[in-house]
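From: lab user (bench 3)
To: helpdesk
Subject: output format question, protein + copper (II) ion

Hello, I'm new to running complex predictions and I'm not sure whether the block I got back is the full result or only part of it. Here's what I submitted:
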Amino acid sequence: MSKLRKLGLSVAIAASLVALSSPSFAGEKMDVGSVAKQAQIQGLERVTQTLVAPPFLPEHNQVAKGGPKIVEMTMTIVEKEMEIAPDVFVQALTFEGTNPGPMIVAHVGDYVELTLKNPKTNSMVHNIDFHAATGALGGGGLTHVNPGEQVVLRFKATKAGVFVYHCAPGGAMIPYHVVSGMNGAIMILPREGLKDEKGNAVSYDKAYYVGEQDWYIPKDENGKYKRYGSPAEALGDTMKVMTGLTPTHLTFNGKVGALTGENAMTAKVGETVLFLHSQANRDTRIHLIGGHGDLVWTGGSFDDIPTTNRETWQIGGGEAAAALYTFQQPGIYVYINHNLIEGVMLGAAGHVSVEGEWNNDLMEQVSKPGPIQ
Ligand SMILES: [Cu+2]
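Helpdesk reply: Thanks, we reran it on our side. This is the complete output you should expect:
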């Protein structure tokens, strides 16, 4: 038996075990203490979070207002064909029709309550594993939904940081769904907001969410990328390319060029921008050409002291990270995976277009290029 199949089976077994024990998770066999707790949770204020397509974040407070809340949102699973580069198509599996799925934002102590819908027009079973959640495979064991079903999962946000979520239906379908686009991230802010390396409060003027995706697109005998009619049809060929571990494309936000040119992220000189970056499957390293990570929470935990003055920050597969930068010069910055083959040739790059006054003290072209004297 191959390692992959063994792994798949062990995960499937783990998932089925969780499914068997799920009634106690679901609250059907609660003791008196649990009932009291349940009543307490139900008494909390409910707020509905309207999710938005990346690179944008839903409306949120950086410093929590009031006590813990139930933050509720709905995500619909969308199976659809996406063009990830000119004339390159994938039978994508997505949360909310985008790659990555939408960023969710809550505060430590809040309860995140997700209604996950798998419309009957879809063809596959899906679920969601929140790396921010505790227990039941991150909720993966409690959220399998067939086409035509929905499920509601609530978890308590106990860990501050930015975390990946992804579909993990079992076995080899776990990596298949993840590399077909079914992943996103959630940011759990400390109630008092972010702090710098000295413990002073910091805030951002805007935030962007960049989801990096590795794609494994099969080619035909003439070397042309193949196009398929359904996720099931794409499965066999895609699995073969996947197990070679060499992506054919890497995208920031679902398409080569999704964040460049007219689609560039924007900022003004003096503005502080929080960049949130996730990679659900594969290691990456991010660099802002012409700028820095003033504060970087490598590993994504906001309880850690951020590192400073970073040139490049590592993000492991299955991880998200946060970087804060105050722009000081106008112009186009390239936000890139600094394996430059991956960034420049496979697609993992975006732009930040910054307006403002040029500062000659920081940099000046002392003389233009000309003949050697
Ligand atoms: Cu899925």
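A quick orientation on your result: Confidence is low (pLDDT under 50) at residues 1-28. Let us know if anything else is unclear.
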